[in-house]
Amino acid sequence: MKSYWMQMADGHATLELRESPQPEPGPGQLLLRVRASGLNRGEFIAGHGLHGKGGAAKAVGMEAAGEVVACGAGVSRFKAGDRVMGRCPGAFAELVLMDQREALPMPAKLSWEEAASIPLTFLVVHDMLVLQGRLQPGEWVLIPGVSSGVGVAAFQMAKALGAKVIGTSGSAAKLERLKALGLDLGLCTRAPDFGAAVLQATDGKGVDLVVNTVGGSVFAECVRVMAFEGRLATVGYVDGVLKAEIDIEALHAKRLTLFGVSNKQRSAEQRAQGVPAFAAQILPLLADGRIQPVIDRVFPFGQLAAAKAHMESNQQLGKIILSGHP
User: Fold this and answer.
1) How high is the mean pLDDT in each 10-residue block of the chain (326 residues)?
2) DSSP conformation letters of 20-74
3) What is the CATH T-level fold of the domain 2-118+293-323, as seen in this structure?
4) Domain with CATH 3.90.180.10 in the chain
5) E strand or H helix at 318, and its extent?
6) How many CB atoms lie within 10 A of CB 326?
7) Which CATH class, in words, describes the domain spanning 122-260?
8) How far, in Å, are 47, 49, 284 from residue 44 at the CA level?
């Protein structure tokens, strides 16, 4: 079967399409014929720590949608022919193995491409907003970098859960598109200068939850605009700024909560823990259209390098998908 591999050296990623042996499902695993898979920026950034230090090539891709071909021992929730979506390593391939604990039934109304855009991004967003972020209806959410794949998903889920959302982006055109989808306030900036506008919009109270997709360059400004008992999730650092000062006085006085969202050091069991809650709370919103995945662009399977280049151009709004797998 065909599968993509990537080697990281000196911060540069080299992609290679290889002929690889067909995998066999082990206990608790599904063998999936991949119909579409989603790109995720962190996989291609050396600083995100998703690659070994030895520089060895690894199969790439982190989420997929497709049909179950075969089931390993102990699989009871799925059978051959089922349409599923989920997180899985090596998703840029013709066939892939998926832990049944990560597999989600694919809502009938979704296309393969829409389904492939959901698993990793929306599970991370659910972790940020619900499991750790404790978001309540009527609260304010701030999303610096709202036009990214994670940013758009966080905005959509927050709105579906009854929150009010402020987003920043360097593109006025992207913000206008998101306002049409329900964004309460769009601030056109890439700089840490959004504090005054955020405080004005919230009547001086500040925001209850921040989803920081940008990184250290906006961290201090995010803390400045947090409300009493506010929460701040750090999910990425596309700005490459890995250090930031913390206002200890604000942390103390406002009883703030700062947390990170990453799967790279979690065990398979830990990663799977949040899937049932996601299936119960968010899958119905996707099934009935209250959350509609936003796809920026779909690339044919043979054009992963072009899809990666498009992602790195920062022109996207929503997810980039690799489709038409062999």
Assistant:
1) 87 87 96 97 63 70 97 96 97 97 96 97 97 98 94 97 97 96 97 97 98 97 98 93 96 98 89 95 96 95 95 89 86
2) -PPP---TTEEEEEEEEEE--GGGG-GGG--S-TT---EE---EEEEEEEEE-TT
3) Quinone Oxidoreductase; Chain A, domain 1 (3.90.180)
4) 2-118+293-323, 122-260
5) none
6) 13
7) alpha beta
8) 9, 10, 31
